[in-house]
Amino acid sequence: MNYPSLKSFMLRSKLCLLLLLGCSLQLPADELQWHGFISQGLIQAPETNFVNLDDSISAELTDIGVNMSWALSDKLRLAGQLVYLDGGRRYTKGTRLDYLFLDWTLYSDFDWRLNMFVGRFKNQHWLYSATRDVPFTRNAIVLPQSVYFDSFRDIAVGSDGLALKSTHNTRIGEIELNWSWGATNLSKEQSQILLSTQAQGNADQDYVHQASLFWRPDQSAWQLGVSLLDSDFSYKKAEADLYSDGAMTVQRVMFNGRYAAEHWELSGEWVQERLDISDFYVPGFKRNSFSQGWYVQGRYNLMPRTWALLSLDSFDLDKDDRSGVKFSQSTGGMVPAYFGYQDDVTFGLTYDFKDNLRLTMEHHWVKGTARLAYPVMPDVQNNKSEYWQMWALQLMYWF
User: Fold this and answer.
1) What is the spatial distance between Cα 208 and Cα 159, in angstroms, rounded to a whole number?
2) Measured at the alpha carbon of residue 313, what is the angle toward residues 307 and 316, in degrees to the nearest 5?
3) Taking the alpha carbons of 123, 124, 127, 133 in that order, is the dihedral positive or negative?
4) Which of helix, strand or coil describes residue 25?
5) What domains are defined for the chain?
6) What whole-number distance in Å separates Cα of residue 7 and Cα of residue 19?
7) Rounded-to-integer distance, Cα 224 and Cα 222, Å
8) Would you say the C-alpha torsion 169, 170, 174, 175 has a positive or negative sign?
9) From the CB of residue 107, how many other CB atoms can be counted at a distance below 10 Å?
10) What is the pLDDT of residues 124-173, one digit of tens each?
């Protein structure tokens, strides 16, 4: 499905927002709110293609960002963030406009608030989707891949389009409802992270439609939520290409929960994802499969300024083939069964030197490679082991 009117509307909207941003830079400093962060780390994941291909310790673990918020009036706000990211082979390296949107308060009273966002906005539908690029807001350096698949990061992190957010205080607690519709422009490099370097054509996200509901019971530390996603992709092959013209549909249903006490925190998400592929590999090809994944993370305050993390993360490429045997057989044995699943146990430590200076360290023990690039073309050559490990440390500062 193609939406030329949506693309034209969003192009005009982004040009207007950029003009507003340019005007805001001429304002006195006290009329703007500026914040930022910088982090640098080391990471190693030998015997995989997760970070690099030579198994070496890598410094490709960089997050730098500067954001601003400008209140145009009591009801209008302009917000934007520019980031530089380097995650090795996990996602596209470089500087990008992370978000730039106009926030319009359509209605507000003591119990109810309704906001509309126009432009490039963040994904507000999952627990860590809106802040996954801000290192001090997440529990782990590498988020659980069952839900926050790094190869899909550039598509999942946000969209160009329209979003609504409603919060309502009721007798049973706060109810938050989010809705969004838009699309993400995919570069050639982003397409190849998803489809492999052999993809020479053009991949497009035609649209992504999401909705989510969160409930925060009154006088409780709990938050419970559910979210839905529907998205279509299309691929136009190049003149010399391994793949054919094709289309993909991705649909997700997710449940999540979080409990935040004074000295400990528990969070988790469960996802079922439908992937429908038409043509693409060869003309006439059809595949419709359902994957499932979940994670549970616990954090505990060991002592002042020191937190410990324990995370369990599990993903199955096909819920009806959790061992990956049928998947391997469908490839004639060319792809090992361990590409059909991925289970991860993570232990981490965090120490705050100051209120805005933090060191995080973590170690992963992993079984399976289902969440290593490339999602539609398993990299058998560089992911040769069913069992592998990964470690990372990162120093972060924010202001």
Assistant:
1) 8
2) 175
3) positive
4) coil
5) 4-398 (2.40.160.10)
6) 19
7) 7
8) negative
9) 10
10) 999 999 988 899 999 999 999 999 999 999 899 999 999 999 999 999 99
